[in-house]
Structure formats: C-alpha cells, structure tokens
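Entry 14. Ran structure prediction on the chain below.
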Amino acid sequence: RERGFPENSIEGFENVLEKMPAFFEIDPRLTKDSVIILMHDETLDRTTTGKGKVLDYTWDDLQNIKLKDSEGNITSYKIPLLEDVIIWSKGKTIINLDKKDVPMDMIVKLIRKHRAENHVMLTVHTGAQARYYYDRFPGIMLSAFARNDKEYEDLAISGVPWENMIAYVGYTIDKKNIHIVKKLQAEGVRCMVSFAPTHDKKESREERRAAYIEELKRKPDIIESDIPTEIWEVLKIKEKE
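Output, structure tokens:
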C-alpha cells in the first residue's frame, strides 16, 4: 500500500529500500505454462489491468498487462518473474517466498540455479515443509507458522534447528500465544506479527499510527506490514523518546 507503487514489484521494493532497511515477503505463482511470477492473489483483477485467474495465462499473455498501485491507479510497471527478483535482490535485501501454488521442488531448483540460499527465505506452514527445505539447504532461513501449540509442536519435532527459523505467531502477541512466544524467544527465535490484516486497514494515517504505537508495547521482534514506511516513522519516533 505504498502510494504510487504496486505490491510484488521490484520498483516497489526499491522505493521502500530508499527510505528504510527491510526484507520482503513476496508471492510466487505459476502461469499456465509453469513460469513463476509474483502475484498475491489467484486472480489478476485487484492488482493489474488483467482479468481472471493467473493460471489461465501464459507468460507471453501477461506481457501487455500493467500493474496497479495501492490505490488502483494503473502504472507503467509489469508483472515480474521470480527469477528476476532473486537476481535483483542479491546484495540488496532478503526476499521471503510465501507458500502459494508453486511446487517446492521448483523453488529448490531455482534457488540452486542462482545459489540464492543466503538471501532467500522460505515460508513454511508445517514441520514437514520445513524439513523438506532444510534437508536440501541446511543453512537456509525459514519463516515458520507457530500461531498455536499444535503448530509449535509440529516444528519442534521436525528436527530443523531453531536457529534456522523466524516464527510467525499471528496478528498480535496476547494471552493466547504469549507462552509460545516466550518458548520461541528462549530458543533464540525472533517472533513476527502481521499488521497487514488489522492495523494497516484503518482508514486514516492517524488511526494507523495510534494502533502501531499501542501494538509496539507488546514488543514483537519483527513486523510484517503493507505500509512499512509508516511503521518506520513510528519506530524512529519511539527510538528518540
């Protein structure tokens, strides 16, 4: 939701990095001809000038489609290939590949091709997924779901070292998950919360700022946000206090 820039675009990532340090969760999806692009939704409608499901289009079909910014305005930017983003990000930032519809073996092949395990992270929803990637890349970092006791235990028995993980613990830290957060932090795992579905959606900048300030009192280690530059402004203010 950074004004003037589309999500899941190199141009959008560069805009954020000009203002603050950040790493990016991105969304790999397959086209009809099994090319891996970046697109959050299953459909093109919300974020592009196209219509319908991504899987109904070949890579060539997508070449005349433009990305929209956070306010729905058409930009000059085009849908990027995941491979191009992996190449671009080396030496600049970390990219975290969310789990969408791309088979894990395709992700593995692409990471190996570019020797990208040092600047690519992988989101995993289960201990089995974590183990799959760890067995192939023993040094890779994983963003693992640990929102409840079941997910925590699934990771704990996977055999993947805690040092290979950050943990997504939910939208906030509260009485429902604080015991999990404490166990993870005791293992040296940094815990991430997401403001994208909650505080980021408040209408005014003032409302969002107030919500961010209140949420920071819960002391998350990592914050996921669709408006990272607004979070950064709040963090800089808090740092000066």
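Residues 23 and 93 are 6 Å apart (CA to CA). Will compare against last week's run tomorrow.
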